[in-house]
Amino acid sequence: MKVEFIPVWKQVTPELAEELVTFWREHKAIPDAASARARAQQAVCVARDEQGALCGVGTALLQVIPRLRQPMYYYRQFFAPALRGRHQELPFFQRCKQVLHAYNAGLARPESLGLLLEIENSKIAAAYKRAVEHGFDAVFIGYSPRGLQLRASYFEDAVLLPPARMIAPVAAARGVAMAPRTRKTSPTLPAAASAGTQITTENAP
């Protein structure tokens, strides 16, 4: 099966957005149209087969999680059944990372240090047991709230930014003990279907 990886970061047209909405709905990944349209705007690359049919997509959302206090792209990847098992997961991820790296390099001030991933696919998790997976270019940094591997894949020239300021909820000021959260933490996004090929990131703790 011949497949083409096409960068679409910051270039998602209305037509592509609707195509992605249909793609996710047909594969029961994101059945809610409003959520799918919001996710479509986060598309980094899409994969198309020799007929031009959409068969994969990678998305990214800028986020800060408390354990890092650094901005990272919350990355998710979903393949149609026809593309699964064809060893395209890693090449597609690497292409998406290249696109995001190039985008950051063109900014006056980089907005992210790299990609944050939660390894949801059990086969991928079983294949990556080393703390530092050089072929994958992803470093183990702990487990997500769902108990899945959490990895950071940093851009080659990433330099630490000042740590994001931590703020306590209003309830804490009233004497209620609560864990601090970051100002930039985003709400939990709808998860893609657990079946098939996915690389998703940690939900905000």
Description:
The protein is α+β, with helices and mostly antiparallel strands and 205 residues long. Helices cover 23% and strands 28% of the residues. The protein is built from five helices and eleven strands; from the N terminus they run βααβββαβαββββαββ. Strands 1, 2, 3, 4, 5, 6, 7, 8 and 11 form a nine-stranded mixed beta sheet that branches. Helix 3 links the parallel strand 4 (71-79) and strand 5 (114-118). Helix 1 (14-26) packs across helix 2 (33-40). The longest helix is centred in the middle third of the chain and has 17 residues, at 89-105. It starts with a strand and ends in a 6-residue tail after the last strand.
Write the layout of secondary structure elements.
Layout: E1 3-7, H1 14-26, H2 33-40, E2 43-49, E3 54-64, E4 71-79, H3 89-105, E5 114-118, H4 122-127, E6 132-133, E7 138-143, E8 149-154, E9 166-167, H5 170-173, E10 181-182, E11 198-199
Parallel strand pairs: 4-5
Antiparallel strand pairs: 1-2, 2-3, 3-4, 4-11, 5-8, 6-7, 7-8, 9-10
Helix pairs in contact: 1-2
